[in-house]
Prior knowledge:
Layout: H1 12-16, E1 26-27, H2 30-33, H3 38-53, H4 55-77, E2 85-88, H5 91-101, E3 109-113, H6 118-131, E4 134-138, H7 147-156, E5 162-168, H8 180-189, E6 193-198, H9 209-212, E7 216-220, E8 232-236, H10 262-268, H11 276-279, H12 281-288, H13 295-318, E9 332-336, H14 346-357, E10 359-360, E11 363-365, E12 372-377, H15 384-394
Helix pairs in contact: 3-4, 5-6, 13-15
Amino acid sequence: MKDGVNNFGLQIQNIKELWSLDPDINFLNHGSFGACPKSVLSTQQQLRARLEAEPVRFFTREWESLLDYARNQLADFIGGNEQNLVFVSNATTGVNAVLRSLQFSSDDELLTTNHEYNACRNALDFVANRSGARVTVAKIPFPLESPQEVIKAVLEQLSPKTKLALLDHITSQTGLILPIPELVQELQLRGVDTLIDGSHAPGMIALNVSEIAATYYVGNCHKWLCAPKGAAFLYVQKDKQSMIRPLTISHGANSLRRDKSLFQLEFDWMGTDDPTAYICVPEAIKLMGSLLPGGWEQLRQHNHELVLQGRKLLCDILNVFPPCPKDMIGSMAVIPMPQPWENQDFVSLHDRLLDDFGIELPFIPWQGQPKLLMRISAQIYNSIEEYEYLAKVLRKF
């Protein structure tokens, strides 16, 4: 890691020491799995020790109130109603829970885009194949010049048979922030339910799920919110909750309790598990919001400005154009790789950068032109010097 100063004059090395990241690696891939700060991991370890000291007491007396507090804090952070929110282990699990709870027929069409995350597209194909429903794909152009191109591509694929739209809020492959509020509104006007995969949204952008008002919304807490791995959420509108069941049916299915909805009772307890990742979400929210004077808003802006600086630097070095407007990216950006790179194996490129130069970032194959993308992430522990080092290395290829 090269010493440097970020956009707010903070010593990057001091910031990076809040994480357990390898100091010899230029970690430019926060977007894939996130990275959890040491103090949040310490809180999780304390909770685990508390659990193991008296497991029966923890699960019968303590666990539920801790989970409810975490739910309350997360709901406030994402601008939602806590009664509509449950925890799941990751966003893909949340997407599966929704898709596999719903009933489709051979007359139904399920809409998605060519930018959809592969795991969730597989889940969509699974339920479509099982029911005979048809998957239709909106082909969002890339590169693109405006969010209107996204809206146009999606609305053109609608038909009277479209029952559900599965859309990324922020695409994994191309790093685009899709115009989800506008899309949800347009789809609702046409009677189409929306399942939004917001895997990258919490912590990267200012999120208000109540204002978006998607039928179903899932998001990860382990990525840009920096909670421990295994923390994510599913948000379901109240009038749809009776239809959505967890992938594991357990004790909640026949609970006689009336202090909570069946929706929360079923998802909250699916069997003995380690709930500490969920319970640590408030600690992650608090810590990350304390790193800059302006809190989360300033942190998001810092990461956005840093990734734009990195994108410009790398596009200039590679003599390529930025593939999308600045306001369509958050803390991740992709750089189109020029023709000499197109036929190189993306796994080998990743491994060479990591093994020979200590740089961690993904190369992503794309179905159009350009054929290969390089994705960079920006978190507060990163600095412009890391992108400059990457640019220097790329010149050697």
